[in-house]
Amino acid sequence: MNGFQQLAGVLQQSSYKSQPKAGGNHTSQDLGELRFELGTVLAPPPDLSIQIDGLSVPITKEFIVVAEDLCSHKRKVSIRNQGKTKMYSESVDDLYPKLPPQSSHNYKYIELSNSEFELIDGEIEFLDELKKGDRIIVASCGSLYFILDRAVRYT
Predict the structure, then answer these.
(1) Do 136 and 39 contact (CB within 8 A), yes or no?
(2) pLDDT one-digit tens code per residue, 54-88
(3) Which CATH number fits domain 30-72+127-155: 3.30.420.10, 2.70.98.90, 2.40.50.140, 2.40.30.60?
(4) I need a labelling partner for 64 at 20 to 30 A (CA). Which of 19, 57, 74, 111 fits?
(5) Pfam families per the record (predicted)?
């Protein structure tokens, strides 16, 4: 049994239930069998539509849930590096803009041995959202389609 089959078994045993109704009451309607399928993005967000391999009708955004990692999103991060730090830049002016203009020099990077770098409460923006033609791994359950990740096949 491979990892996908194990995950499918666990999810089916948990008997995924539908979204809560207004007021917070949960319905007990079972959404059906969980299946893993491959598909292709026909139109990127915000008007996302996908084509599941073997189905003739495209799936529209109203029936799709996308993993956040496949959307443009921001994350808070803290980064710390001990030891050797390299800062890449085309010129020192980019790193130290207050230097007098006559002291401008071009470098590929500046290397600082035995130095530390720390970024606290920084932010990284991920821009690699789904694009037309992307192959995707989809979990379907009832009328909902969960895009889990991009699919890559090495041939």
Answers:
(1) yes
(2) 999 999 999 999 999 999 999 998 888 776 666 65
(3) 2.40.50.140
(4) 74
(5) DUF2577
